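Try this one yourself first.
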C-alpha cells in the first residue's frame, strides 16, 4: 500500500470499517495524543510544504534521496518544494546534490546552538590554544 490508497477492513461476517492510507511507512503510534493527531491531520490535509516539513521532523537529518524515497511523494514535485522551502529558510540543506542533508529550521538552529556551546566551552577550558591559533593565522 502507498499513500492515498483506500482500504476496507472486513471480518467473515461483516464490514468493520475502511479509510485512506496517509502514511505507509508509519511506526506504531500512540492513540489520543494531540501531537500524533495533529501530525496525521497534516499528512492527510496539509499542503505539500507542510507534509514535507512534518515528515522531516520525524526523520531528520536525512539525505535528500533517502527522504524522497521514504516520503511516497512525487519526486519532481517534492524536490521543487524542498528547494522552495530552503529558499524560504523553513528547511536547511547541508551539502550538494542527492547527498544533501535536510533539517527543519528549528532543528538546524538547535544544532548550531549546541555546536556554538561546545566550541565556547572548549575555548574556556583551553584559552591558550585560541591565542596561539589567532597569532599563527595573523602571522600568515
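Now uncover the answer:
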Amino acid at each position: 500500500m502507498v499513500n492515498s490508497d483506500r482500504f476496507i477492513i472486513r471480518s467473515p461476517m461483516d464490514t468493520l470499517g475502511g479509510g485512506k492510507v496517509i502514511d505507509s511507512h508509519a511506526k506504531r503510534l500512540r492513540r489520543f495524543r494531540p501531537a500524533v493527531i495533529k501530525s496525521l491531520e497534516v499528512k492527510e490535509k496539509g499542503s505539500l510544504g507542510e507534509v514535507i516539513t512534518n515528515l522531516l521532523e520525524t526523520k531528520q537529518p536525512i539525505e535528500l534521496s533517502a527522504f524522497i524515497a521514504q516520503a511516497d511523494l512525487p519526486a519532481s514535485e517534492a524536490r521543487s518544494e524542498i528547494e522552495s522551502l530552503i529558499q524560504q529558510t523553513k528547511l536547511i540543506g547541508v551539502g550538494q546534490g542527492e547527498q544533501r542533508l535536510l533539517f527543519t529550521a528549528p532543528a538546524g538552529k538547535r544544532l548550531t546552538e549546541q555546536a556554538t556551546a561546545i566550541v565556547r566551552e572548549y575555548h574556556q577550558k583551553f584559552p591558550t590554544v585560541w591565542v596561539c591559533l589567532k597569532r599563527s593565522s595573523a602571522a600568515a
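Discussion: Helices lie at 34-45, 48-59, 64-71, 75-87, 105-125, 127-139. Residues 1-45 form one domain.
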